[in-house]
Amino acid sequence: MAAARDKESRGIAALEGAILTVLLVSLLSSAWVVGDLISRTISVHTALDRALYDHALKSLTISSSGQIAVNEGAIQSQMQHLLLDVSQDLISKLGEDFSEGKLRVEIGYAIAGIDADTGLLQSLDVRSAHNLPFGTLSPPPQVLTEHDLQREFERLSGPLGNAARYALPSAGFGQAGADQYLPFVVFVGLRIFVDMRGSFSGRIIQEIGAMDQPIIGEVKGVALRGEVAL
Q1: Residue 115 CA to chain centroid, in angstroms?
Q2: Are strands 60-62 and 228-229 parallel, antiparallel or unpaired?
Q3: Is the dihedral of CA 167, 170, 173, 178 positive or negative?
Q4: Which burial class, exposed, middle or buried, applies to 189 when counting CB atoms under 10 A from its CB (0-12, 13-18, 19+)?
Q5: Mean pLDDT by 10 residues, the chain (230 residues)
Q6: 10 Å Cβ neighbour count for 193?
Q7: Closest CA to 179 of 66, 59, 56
Q8: pTM for this one?
Q9: How would you classify the pairing of strands 60-62 and 68-70?
Q10: CA 227, CA 230: separation in Å to the nearest integer?
Q11: Is the dihedral of CA 34, 35, 39, 40 positive or negative?
C-alpha cells in the first residue's frame, strides 16, 4: 500500500515537473519573441529615421518668374536614392532571413499650401502617384490601412484652415507689406512592412494565434526644412 502511494507520489511529482518545464519553456519563448519583435521594430524605426533625417534636400526653389516654388524635380530624383538606402539599411539590420520577398518599402511626399500672410493651411496635395515601392511583399488591406501615408501627412499638416504646424517664416517676416511665411511646406514619408513568417518569432506568433500574418508595419513622415535651392 505504501509502495503504491510512493509510486503515485513520484508520478504526480513527475507530472508537475513536466508541467513546470512546459510553462518555463513557454514563458522563455514568449519573452524571446517579445524581445525579438521589439528589436526588429527598433530596426524599422532606425531605418526610417536614418533615411528621413540624413538626406539633406532643398525642397524649394526660385521659379523663372522669381517666385518661390516647390523643387519637385529634385524631390522626385531623390526619392529613388532614399528608397534604396532605407531598404538596404533595413535588410542589413534584419538579417539574412529577410529578402525582397519579405519586405515592402514605400515612399511618397505631400505639398502643403500655406497662406503667405497668415500662415494658415490652405491645401494638402498628396503626391501618391509618385510613391515608389521596393520589395514584393503584399500586406493585407487592413495592415495597409493601419499604416497609411496620406493619413500620416494629414496628421503632420493639421486641419485645413488652421495655423499650419510647420509654416516657415519668410525672410520678410515682421515687415509690413512683405510675405510673412513661405508659401509651401513639403512632407516626405516612408512606410515599411516586414514579413516575419518563416522566422522563429513569426512561427510562435502564428502558433499562439496572436496574429494571422506576422507582419511588422511602420509609417513615418517628416517636414523638410524649407531650404531654397538657388
Answers
A1: 30
A2: parallel
A3: negative
A4: buried
A5: 49 44 38 46 64 69 83 82 77 66 84 92 81 75 88 92 86 81 89 70 50 72 74
A6: 23
A7: 66
A8: 0.71
A9: antiparallel
A10: 9
A11: negative
